[in-house]
Amino acid sequence: MVPRRTTRHSRSTMVRPVTFSSFARTVANLATAYISKRQKPDLKLQRPSPSAPGDGFVEQSLEEKSERSESSEEEELEGVIQADFVFFDPIPDDFHGVKMLLQNYLDDKLWDLSGFVDLILGQTTVGTVVKIEDDEDDGLFSVVTVLNLGRYKDHKCIMEIKEFLFKVCLDRNVIDDLRLLWAEQAHDVGILVSQRVANLPLQLLPPLYALFDEVLWATEDEPTEELRKAFCFKSYLIVSKIYKHKNADHKKGKSSHNEELIIYIKPEDEIFHKLCLWSFYFPLHSEHVTTHEVRNYRLMGLVMAVEADKISSFRGELHSLIDDS
Protein backbone atom coordinates (compact mmCIF):
# COMPACT_ATOMS: atom_id res chain seq x y z
CA MET A 1 0.00 0.00 0.00
CA VAL A 2 1.36 3.39 -0.93
CA PRO A 3 1.73 5.67 2.12
CA ARG A 4 -0.13 8.94 2.15
CA ARG A 5 1.75 12.14 1.90
CA THR A 6 1.12 14.16 5.05
CA THR A 7 1.14 17.37 3.02
CA ARG A 8 0.71 17.99 -0.68
CA HIS A 9 2.33 21.39 -1.01
CA SER A 10 5.34 20.28 -3.01
CA ARG A 11 7.74 17.44 -3.60
CA SER A 12 10.90 17.76 -5.62
CA THR A 13 12.58 15.27 -7.89
CA MET A 14 16.17 15.76 -9.02
CA VAL A 15 16.58 14.08 -12.37
CA ARG A 16 18.98 14.27 -15.25
CA PRO A 17 16.95 14.65 -18.44
CA VAL A 18 17.34 11.82 -20.91
CA THR A 19 18.77 12.60 -24.32
CA PHE A 20 16.32 11.68 -27.06
CA SER A 21 17.39 10.56 -30.50
CA SER A 22 17.13 13.25 -33.15
CA PHE A 23 14.16 11.47 -34.73
CA ALA A 24 12.31 11.07 -31.43
CA ARG A 25 12.89 14.72 -30.59
CA THR A 26 11.67 15.75 -34.03
CA VAL A 27 8.47 13.75 -33.64
CA ALA A 28 7.81 15.12 -30.16
CA ASN A 29 8.57 18.69 -31.10
CA LEU A 30 6.44 18.65 -34.24
CA ALA A 31 3.39 17.49 -32.32
CA THR A 32 2.67 21.04 -31.27
CA ALA A 33 5.10 23.05 -33.34
CA TYR A 34 2.21 25.05 -34.77
CA ILE A 35 1.86 26.99 -31.49
CA SER A 36 2.22 30.68 -32.25
CA LYS A 37 5.72 31.94 -31.51
CA ARG A 38 4.39 34.99 -29.77
CA GLN A 39 2.76 32.72 -27.21
CA LYS A 40 5.97 30.93 -26.29
CA PRO A 41 7.84 31.97 -23.16
CA ASP A 42 11.07 33.86 -23.90
CA LEU A 43 13.56 31.66 -22.03
CA LYS A 44 17.29 31.76 -22.44
CA LEU A 45 18.35 28.71 -20.47
CA GLN A 46 18.81 25.56 -22.48
CA ARG A 47 16.10 23.56 -20.83
CA PRO A 48 12.57 22.42 -21.62
CA SER A 49 10.45 25.46 -22.46
CA PRO A 50 7.63 25.63 -19.90
CA SER A 51 3.96 25.79 -20.76
CA ALA A 52 4.51 25.19 -24.48
CA PRO A 53 3.63 21.51 -25.10
CA GLY A 54 5.97 19.79 -27.51
CA ASP A 55 8.54 22.55 -27.62
CA GLY A 56 12.19 21.61 -27.90
CA PHE A 57 15.15 23.22 -26.26
CA VAL A 58 15.61 26.92 -26.76
CA GLU A 59 18.95 28.45 -27.53
CA GLN A 60 21.20 29.54 -24.68
CA SER A 61 23.09 32.77 -25.24
CA LEU A 62 26.91 32.64 -25.39
CA GLU A 63 27.12 35.27 -22.64
CA GLU A 64 24.97 33.25 -20.26
CA LYS A 65 26.76 30.04 -21.17
CA SER A 66 30.08 31.65 -20.28
CA GLU A 67 28.78 32.95 -16.96
CA ARG A 68 27.34 29.57 -16.01
CA SER A 69 30.16 27.37 -17.30
CA GLU A 70 31.99 26.96 -13.98
CA SER A 71 28.97 26.45 -11.75
CA SER A 72 26.98 24.17 -14.07
CA GLU A 73 29.76 22.08 -15.59
CA GLU A 74 28.89 19.08 -13.44
CA GLU A 75 25.18 19.43 -14.15
CA GLU A 76 25.33 19.37 -17.92
CA LEU A 77 25.14 16.34 -20.14
CA GLU A 78 25.30 16.98 -23.86
CA GLY A 79 23.96 20.48 -23.33
CA VAL A 80 21.07 19.47 -21.05
CA ILE A 81 20.88 21.08 -17.61
CA GLN A 82 20.07 19.07 -14.51
CA ALA A 83 16.97 20.54 -12.90
CA ASP A 84 15.09 20.17 -9.66
CA PHE A 85 11.47 19.59 -10.68
CA VAL A 86 8.88 20.28 -8.01
CA PHE A 87 5.35 18.90 -7.86
CA PHE A 88 2.64 21.29 -6.64
CA ASP A 89 -1.07 21.33 -6.04
CA PRO A 90 -2.72 23.47 -8.74
CA ILE A 91 -3.51 27.05 -7.70
CA PRO A 92 -5.33 29.92 -9.46
CA ASP A 93 -1.99 31.53 -10.42
CA ASP A 94 -1.34 28.50 -12.65
CA PHE A 95 -4.24 29.46 -14.94
CA HIS A 96 -2.24 30.76 -17.91
CA GLY A 97 0.37 28.00 -17.71
CA VAL A 98 -2.24 25.24 -17.69
CA LYS A 99 -4.20 26.93 -20.46
CA MET A 100 -1.06 27.11 -22.59
CA LEU A 101 -0.36 23.42 -22.11
CA LEU A 102 -3.93 22.49 -23.07
CA GLN A 103 -4.50 24.96 -25.88
CA ASN A 104 -4.69 22.18 -28.50
CA TYR A 105 -6.53 19.66 -26.35
CA LEU A 106 -9.47 19.68 -28.79
CA ASP A 107 -7.47 20.32 -31.95
CA ASP A 108 -8.37 23.73 -33.44
CA LYS A 109 -11.87 23.88 -31.90
CA LEU A 110 -12.93 27.15 -30.27
CA TRP A 111 -14.37 26.09 -26.94
CA ASP A 112 -14.55 27.01 -23.28
CA LEU A 113 -10.95 26.08 -22.47
CA SER A 114 -10.87 28.70 -19.73
CA GLY A 115 -13.79 26.99 -18.01
CA PHE A 116 -12.01 23.64 -18.31
CA VAL A 117 -8.86 25.08 -16.72
CA ASP A 118 -10.99 26.53 -13.91
CA LEU A 119 -12.33 23.04 -13.15
CA ILE A 120 -8.79 21.65 -13.06
CA LEU A 121 -7.51 24.38 -10.76
CA GLY A 122 -10.56 24.16 -8.53
CA GLN A 123 -9.80 20.52 -7.70
CA THR A 124 -6.76 20.70 -5.44
CA THR A 125 -6.92 17.32 -3.68
CA VAL A 126 -6.42 15.39 -6.93
CA GLY A 127 -4.13 16.85 -9.55
CA THR A 128 -0.56 18.09 -9.93
CA VAL A 129 1.44 20.71 -11.80
CA VAL A 130 5.21 20.52 -12.29
CA LYS A 131 7.59 23.46 -12.10
CA ILE A 132 11.33 23.98 -11.67
CA GLU A 133 12.38 24.94 -8.17
CA ASP A 134 13.27 28.62 -7.74
CA ASP A 135 12.33 29.36 -11.36
CA GLU A 136 11.81 33.10 -11.72
CA ASP A 137 9.46 32.55 -14.66
CA ASP A 138 7.31 30.15 -12.59
CA GLY A 139 6.58 28.29 -15.82
CA LEU A 140 4.60 25.05 -15.92
CA PHE A 141 6.14 21.95 -17.42
CA SER A 142 3.30 19.51 -16.85
CA VAL A 143 -0.25 19.18 -15.59
CA VAL A 144 -2.04 15.96 -14.71
CA THR A 145 -5.49 15.50 -13.19
CA VAL A 146 -8.75 13.58 -13.50
CA LEU A 147 -12.25 15.06 -13.48
CA ASN A 148 -15.47 13.17 -12.84
CA LEU A 149 -17.48 13.22 -16.05
CA GLY A 150 -20.87 12.93 -14.35
CA ARG A 151 -20.14 15.57 -11.74
CA TYR A 152 -19.23 18.20 -14.33
CA LYS A 153 -21.29 17.04 -17.33
CA ASP A 154 -23.51 20.14 -17.29
CA HIS A 155 -20.59 22.56 -17.47
CA LYS A 156 -20.19 24.23 -20.84
CA CYS A 157 -16.63 23.00 -21.36
CA ILE A 158 -17.56 19.36 -20.68
CA MET A 159 -20.59 19.56 -22.98
CA GLU A 160 -18.28 20.93 -25.69
CA ILE A 161 -15.83 18.06 -25.18
CA LYS A 162 -18.76 15.67 -25.60
CA GLU A 163 -19.92 17.44 -28.77
CA PHE A 164 -16.40 17.36 -30.19
CA LEU A 165 -15.81 13.65 -29.51
CA PHE A 166 -19.15 12.58 -30.96
CA LYS A 167 -18.40 14.63 -34.05
CA VAL A 168 -14.94 13.16 -34.68
CA CYS A 169 -15.81 9.55 -33.79
CA LEU A 170 -16.43 7.86 -37.14
CA ASP A 171 -15.96 4.31 -35.86
CA ARG A 172 -19.39 2.64 -35.77
CA ASN A 173 -18.02 -0.08 -33.51
CA VAL A 174 -17.11 2.50 -30.87
CA ILE A 175 -19.82 5.17 -31.04
CA ASP A 176 -22.27 3.14 -28.93
CA ASP A 177 -19.59 2.64 -26.28
CA LEU A 178 -18.94 6.37 -26.30
CA ARG A 179 -22.65 7.11 -25.85
CA LEU A 180 -22.88 4.64 -22.96
CA LEU A 181 -19.83 6.18 -21.28
CA TRP A 182 -21.34 9.66 -21.52
CA ALA A 183 -24.79 8.59 -20.33
CA GLU A 184 -25.40 5.77 -17.83
CA GLN A 185 -21.72 5.38 -16.90
CA ALA A 186 -20.87 9.09 -16.62
CA HIS A 187 -20.61 9.24 -12.82
CA ASP A 188 -18.10 6.36 -12.89
CA VAL A 189 -15.87 7.91 -15.56
CA GLY A 190 -12.86 10.14 -15.04
CA ILE A 191 -11.53 12.41 -17.78
CA LEU A 192 -7.79 11.84 -17.43
CA VAL A 193 -5.92 14.98 -18.48
CA SER A 194 -2.15 14.78 -18.87
CA GLN A 195 -0.09 17.28 -20.84
CA ARG A 196 3.52 18.35 -20.61
CA VAL A 197 6.41 19.74 -22.57
CA ALA A 198 7.77 17.14 -24.98
CA ASN A 199 11.23 16.79 -23.50
CA LEU A 200 10.28 16.42 -19.85
CA PRO A 201 12.45 13.63 -18.37
CA LEU A 202 10.89 10.19 -18.52
CA GLN A 203 11.87 9.62 -14.89
CA LEU A 204 9.10 12.01 -13.87
CA LEU A 205 6.34 9.83 -15.28
CA PRO A 206 5.92 7.44 -12.31
CA PRO A 207 5.58 10.29 -9.76
CA LEU A 208 3.23 12.11 -12.14
CA TYR A 209 0.97 9.09 -12.24
CA ALA A 210 0.95 8.93 -8.45
CA LEU A 211 -2.24 10.73 -9.43
CA PHE A 212 -3.93 7.36 -9.06
CA ASP A 213 -2.85 7.23 -5.41
CA GLU A 214 -4.48 10.61 -4.90
CA VAL A 215 -7.66 9.26 -6.44
CA LEU A 216 -7.64 6.37 -3.97
CA TRP A 217 -7.02 8.68 -1.02
CA ALA A 218 -9.83 10.96 -2.16
CA THR A 219 -12.29 8.06 -1.95
CA GLU A 220 -11.48 7.90 1.76
CA ASP A 221 -10.52 11.44 2.75
CA GLU A 222 -12.91 13.80 0.98
CA PRO A 223 -15.21 15.54 3.51
CA THR A 224 -18.55 14.39 2.07
CA GLU A 225 -19.88 11.10 0.77
CA GLU A 226 -20.78 12.75 -2.52
CA LEU A 227 -17.19 13.86 -3.07
CA ARG A 228 -15.78 10.51 -2.01
CA LYS A 229 -18.02 8.73 -4.52
CA ALA A 230 -16.95 11.20 -7.22
CA PHE A 231 -13.51 9.59 -7.21
CA CYS A 232 -14.70 5.97 -7.33
CA PHE A 233 -13.90 5.63 -11.00
CA LYS A 234 -14.54 2.50 -12.99
CA SER A 235 -12.94 3.80 -16.17
CA TYR A 236 -10.88 6.68 -17.54
CA LEU A 237 -11.35 8.62 -20.75
CA ILE A 238 -8.14 9.85 -22.40
CA VAL A 239 -7.79 12.27 -25.32
CA SER A 240 -4.29 12.36 -26.78
CA LYS A 241 -2.27 12.60 -30.01
CA ILE A 242 -0.06 10.21 -31.92
CA TYR A 243 1.71 9.99 -35.28
CA LYS A 244 0.10 7.37 -37.49
CA HIS A 245 1.75 6.01 -40.61
CA LYS A 246 -0.12 6.79 -43.79
CA ASN A 247 -0.26 3.08 -44.60
CA ALA A 248 -1.12 1.95 -41.06
CA ASP A 249 -4.65 0.86 -42.00
CA HIS A 250 -3.31 -1.51 -44.64
CA LYS A 251 -0.38 -3.06 -42.80
CA LYS A 252 0.41 -4.60 -39.45
CA GLY A 253 3.51 -4.21 -37.32
CA LYS A 254 5.80 -2.11 -39.49
CA SER A 255 5.73 -0.53 -42.91
CA SER A 256 7.70 -1.78 -45.89
CA HIS A 257 10.53 0.59 -44.90
CA ASN A 258 10.65 -0.85 -41.34
CA GLU A 259 8.87 2.19 -39.96
CA GLU A 260 6.65 1.95 -36.91
CA LEU A 261 2.97 2.26 -37.82
CA ILE A 262 2.23 4.35 -34.74
CA ILE A 263 4.60 6.70 -32.94
CA TYR A 264 3.41 7.63 -29.47
CA ILE A 265 4.28 11.21 -28.58
CA LYS A 266 3.80 10.37 -24.91
CA PRO A 267 5.31 6.93 -24.22
CA GLU A 268 2.72 6.04 -21.59
CA ASP A 269 0.02 6.28 -24.26
CA GLU A 270 1.35 3.09 -25.82
CA ILE A 271 0.65 1.29 -22.54
CA PHE A 272 -2.79 2.85 -22.19
CA HIS A 273 -3.54 1.92 -25.80
CA LYS A 274 -2.59 -1.71 -25.23
CA LEU A 275 -4.72 -1.94 -22.07
CA CYS A 276 -7.72 0.10 -23.23
CA LEU A 277 -11.24 -1.27 -23.54
CA TRP A 278 -11.82 0.62 -26.80
CA SER A 279 -10.25 3.43 -28.78
CA PHE A 280 -10.57 5.44 -31.96
CA TYR A 281 -8.49 7.82 -34.06
CA PHE A 282 -9.56 11.08 -35.61
CA PRO A 283 -7.84 13.48 -38.04
CA LEU A 284 -6.47 16.78 -36.77
CA HIS A 285 -6.99 20.04 -38.61
CA SER A 286 -4.57 22.28 -36.72
CA GLU A 287 -1.69 23.53 -38.82
CA HIS A 288 1.55 21.81 -37.94
CA VAL A 289 5.06 21.59 -39.29
CA THR A 290 6.23 18.49 -41.13
CA THR A 291 9.79 17.43 -41.90
CA HIS A 292 11.54 14.71 -43.82
CA GLU A 293 11.61 12.44 -40.75
CA VAL A 294 7.82 12.30 -40.48
CA ARG A 295 6.87 12.70 -44.12
CA ASN A 296 5.10 9.32 -44.06
CA TYR A 297 3.09 10.09 -40.91
CA ARG A 298 -0.04 12.02 -40.03
CA LEU A 299 -0.64 13.68 -36.68
CA MET A 300 -3.86 12.13 -35.38
CA GLY A 301 -6.05 12.36 -32.33
CA LEU A 302 -6.41 9.25 -30.18
CA VAL A 303 -9.28 8.64 -27.74
CA MET A 304 -9.08 5.73 -25.30
CA ALA A 305 -11.26 4.25 -22.57
CA VAL A 306 -9.23 2.44 -19.92
CA GLU A 307 -10.85 0.41 -17.16
CA ALA A 308 -9.79 1.36 -13.65
CA ASP A 309 -8.79 -2.20 -12.83
CA LYS A 310 -6.07 -1.94 -15.50
CA ILE A 311 -4.29 0.91 -13.73
CA SER A 312 -2.09 -1.34 -11.57
CA SER A 313 -0.87 -3.06 -14.75
CA PHE A 314 -0.32 0.33 -16.35
CA ARG A 315 1.85 1.53 -13.48
CA GLY A 316 3.89 -1.66 -13.46
CA GLU A 317 4.57 -1.41 -17.18
CA LEU A 318 5.35 2.28 -16.84
CA HIS A 319 8.04 1.54 -14.24
CA SER A 320 9.48 -1.15 -16.52
CA LEU A 321 9.51 1.31 -19.41
CA ILE A 322 11.50 3.84 -17.37
CA ASP A 323 13.89 1.19 -16.00
CA ASP A 324 14.65 -0.01 -19.55
CA SER A 325 15.12 3.47 -21.03
TrEMBL record:
Residues 62-71 have a biased composition (Basic and acidic residues). InterPro entries: BCP1_family (IPR025602). GO terms for cellular component: nucleus. Residues 40-76 are annotated as: Disordered. Pfam families: BCCIP (PF13862). It comes from the Eukaryota. Belongs to the BCP1 family. This is Protein BCCIP homolog.
